[in-house]
């Protein structure tokens, strides 16, 4: 029997896979669905980095690109059958792509030996080689624990980062965890029509697992910052407008109130604000600029 990873790959991206038939916004809500404030903040970041092009990897139905084009940026959307250019310039973003990159699941048996989980989630072969090394470094476990091996995500993102031209910046945005607080039973989840569901690898639902953000950052010489901190640095605030404005300029009051609500969702530390941004820049001056733009 194939491993769960192979079944997951087929279920999402095979000829009849979930992402061949479905639009992400019908099943879950990302930052780009939550508010155009997210794209506007990315546009301000591009401006601060003096970059006029954005590459959106795993663009879904292109909501981010629509906002960025309105802000005057040129945008290349990359989806499943698109060829990723050999060289990438500008600002490269992947919002909630890597959690959808299928990875091996493992479970430690009663002797403390990690074994791959098969398509039906029963244990199979013993984990060896690079995957075992990865587990020992990033996600050690005990009998009965389950983990998701982050190498597939690290390697997918390394493939992007190694294409960056001098001056380009890449940012992977995703939900994740760090070594000190890995969930002992993993994070594998399904989503269908806005609801969590069993992660059946039959093409009927999205299948996702959180990203090991510290491993990802180490794999690409990246810096990790929370979405809340990054967006706050980029000027987003969930502060409500003063009540007096409701008297003097009710329309503006309502607009600012609605914007504060949307910003609040993007910044919520227990929701989208708790996501990690792993950023990598290619030359010293760009590293300095990105660091100024994104670090508190
Ligand atoms: C969770 S959705 C995120 C969509 C969008 N970025 C957003 O924030 O709403 C992940 C997207 O990544 C796309 N994807 C998965 N693997 C990909 C690959 N190898 N190249 C390009 N896109 C990919 C899927 O088709 C899907 O549209």
From TrEMBL:
<dbReference type="InterPro" id="IPR003788">
    <property type="entry name" value="NDUFAF7"/>
</dbReference>
<dbReference type="GO" id="GO:0035243">
    <property type="term" value="F:protein-arginine omega-N symmetric methyltransferase activity"/>
</dbReference>
<protein>
    <submittedName>
        <fullName>SAM-dependent MidA family methyltransferase</fullName>
    </submittedName>
</protein>
<dbReference type="GO" id="GO:0032259">
    <property type="term" value="P:methylation"/>
</dbReference>
<keyword id="KW-0489">Methyltransferase</keyword>
<keyword id="KW-0808">Transferase</keyword>
<dbReference type="InterPro" id="IPR029063">
    <property type="entry name" value="SAM-dependent_MTases_sf"/>
</dbReference>
<dbReference type="Pfam" id="PF02636">
    <property type="entry name" value="Methyltransf_28"/>
</dbReference>
<dbReference type="InterPro" id="IPR038375">
    <property type="entry name" value="NDUFAF7_sf"/>
</dbReference>
